[in-house]
């Protein structure tokens, strides 16, 4: 091909490609420029941002070819499911709820005086088998100049959960699979917490919330109701509603303070909470929870994946004749009520008691685009008495699967787990938007 012919071909390509790339972004820029010249309400600004970003990211899909088209499609999905404005919300509510769908409204706003950033969401989601949840969350950050970009962070939230069929196998580390039964739980939470950064990557945390629970049996199901298998001795708080004022605080530590992709990072979170019952006594208790997460990603040009290790410890205790309702006790097995998966070869909520110790190791490596391989090992146990917590009589799980990531966060997990002597467990989890991480029963 002659030089003149090559120049002609390049001109044709640029005529078709370059203007298209400019059209998507320049069109969005023109809309934003025109919008900024006039005054609008806060909600109108949110809707405008959603419309512009949806059109811009959709346009980008058609100006690319090959694998880049997939990446642009992922970016469009990020805006469609997690961006500002009203959009669909899909995924589960709690383990056993099945697939759920609904709507979520997300928004962000910043003010100059005082320098504060706001971010929030309002969401409602329901499943085909009667589980549903609704609520809202508002995050508030300081925005003043800060050399480490660390600011005071406050969160206000309120949620309702309706969970018509939850499984219960009894209390303790040696409960029986054959004792599986069902109970219903309705829960409301409302409150907030504040995070105050201090020196060296440490953060002070304080919170106050209200917690209301209504628990009962289940009729017309394939499994027996909880009150047909257990009594108030085997299941403290059976068929009893409770309400609490929950207060507490803790300390968090992050290393390094500035996030980085490669190398070693560590995060330690500790919290101590008082669950002071206001009705349905005697069910007041106190709880200490510590979570330590370590990650390592080799700093090489070739992606070797990420290795992570997590240790979780929960210590609960009561005073006098108080007890801890079974539906507020932590669980191990499959995935717990807060969508934390440990001992994944076992059934969901398999082991339940006031005290818990779990250790987890994971390896994850990107295979292609948003798809990553996941391998893991879990071990842990629960205990009715604090003195029984230790590294004896631990349950074990091994497994492998895949993770689909959206914007760097896991959107869907699918894995197969074995070990522990109770057959195998195949699980998928999916979530696009949940207004809280630690609810229900988490309470900041």
Concise account of the structure shown:
The chain is an alpha+beta fold and 444 residues long. The protein has four helices and 18 strands. Strand 14 and strand 15 form a beta hairpin.
Write structural notes for this entry.
With 444 residues, the protein is α+β, with helices and mostly antiparallel strands. It folds into 2 domains: 19-81, no CATH class; 84-430, membrane protein fhac: a member of the omp85/tpsb transporter family (Porin), CATH 2.40.160. Helices cover 17% and strands 46% of the residues. It is built from 4 helices and 18 strands. It has helices at 3-36, 42-61, 67-82, 226-229, and strands spanning 85-91, 100-111, 116-127, 132-142, 153-168, 181-197, 202-216, 242-255, 263-279, 285-297, 306-317, 331-332, 351-352, 355-368, 371-383, 395-406, 409-418, 425-430. A hairpin with a 2-residue loop joins strand 16 (395-406) and strand 17 (409-418). Helix 1 (3-36) packs antiparallel against helix 2 and helix 2 (42-61) runs antiparallel to helix 3. Residues 9-21 and 435-439 have low confidence and may be disordered.
